Amino acid sequence: MTCPETPAPARPEAADAPAPAAGRRQPADSQAQGRPEAAEAPAHREPAEAPAPAGAEPAGEPPELRRRYTAADLAVFTPDEAARFVPQGDGDPRGDVVLAWELLYRLEPELYDRLASAERLHPDVVGWLPRGVDQIAEVGAGTGRLTMELTGRGRRITAVEPALPLRRILRRKLAATEHGDRVRVVGGFFDQLPLPDDFAGLVVACSAFTPSPAHGGEAGLAEMERVCRPGGCVAIIWPNHLDWLAARGYRYLSFPGPMSVEFTSMAEAVELAAIFYPRAAGEVRRRGSRTVPFEVLGINPPRDLAFKVLAG
């Protein structure tokens, strides 16, 4: 099994300048959003804006993500998580939005799932993935944004997710889904996948892999390729740092067409925009719709992927 044939260029389209982080982690206005990229002073994006002062949200609105947690919440991390996300033993989620995302997954996983469920993948991204794969490994599965799509494309799927609360939600969803019994959900990190060599014909990550060691990096990419069978495919969906991936032999593919975040109601659109896209919250409220174009929120839509076919 190999990835489908495609004329994708070896480097990102429009790559005259250094390629931006193309995934949801790099908003169009450089506001730090999305699943985390790195806990370092991020070279992968411009620094996040300073946290809004206390009481800055309009009355009745929920606090934005970076103001929901404090350093005391870091105690939720397991020793393995703390070693990766707060290696120095301290951190401030109000000044480090990446850390705030990690706390979100563990303290308010249902809130994250509401957002991820609204940010649907471009159908051609899913359609491009090979069908009839004997074994698929997904890394950083979250609450199943991609996993639910993979149940119809592989005979057996192993979904690796480090955050226990997200694994619980994913298992619950799979129990209510046709072919959900094809999926095995396990704990694990990019840099230490609990899978043997040459395990899967397709190894994939969606809105999870970054060049940061805490969320992939060189060790994580090497692990994904170790787990992939010769002739198989490693795919990074909604990638960031396209130049970084291109330098490691990954080809880029993007699918056209308008895309929107599809919230369940206008009220949810306003609520989640205030938390996750505070710069766009006023415009979302003004539009008065549950469907919000990605460009209004200032983030790149999940329309692209980077892939590599391993030598057979």
Characterization of the model:
With 312 residues, this protein is α/β, with parallel strands linked by helices. It has 11 helices and 9 strands. The chain has a 7-stranded mixed β-sheet. The protein has a two-stranded antiparallel sheet with strand order 7-8. α5 links the parallel β1 (133-139) and β2. The longest helix has 12 residues, at 164-175. It is globular, with a radius of gyration of 19 Å. It starts with 78 loop residues before the first helix and ends with a strand.
Structure summarized in a few sentences:
This protein is α/β, with parallel strands linked by helices and 312 residues long.
Low-confidence stretches: 7-56
Largest sheet: 7 strands, mixed
General form: globular
By secondary-structure content and strand pairing, the structural class works out as alpha/beta
- How many angstroms separate the termini? 10 Å
Comma- or semicolon-separated keywords:
single chain, 312 residues, alpha/beta, 7-stranded mixed beta sheet, two-stranded antiparallel sheet, 11 helices, 28% helix, globular
Question: How are the elements arranged and paired?
Answer:
Layout: H1 79-85, H2 97-107, H3 109-118, H4 123-128, E1 133-139, H5 147-150, E2 154-160, H6 164-175, E3 183-186, E4 200-206, H7 217-227, E5 228-237, H8 242-246, E6 251-254, E7 260-262, H9 266-276, H10 281-287, E8 291-293, H11 294-297, E9 304-309
Helix pairs in contact: 2-3, 9-10
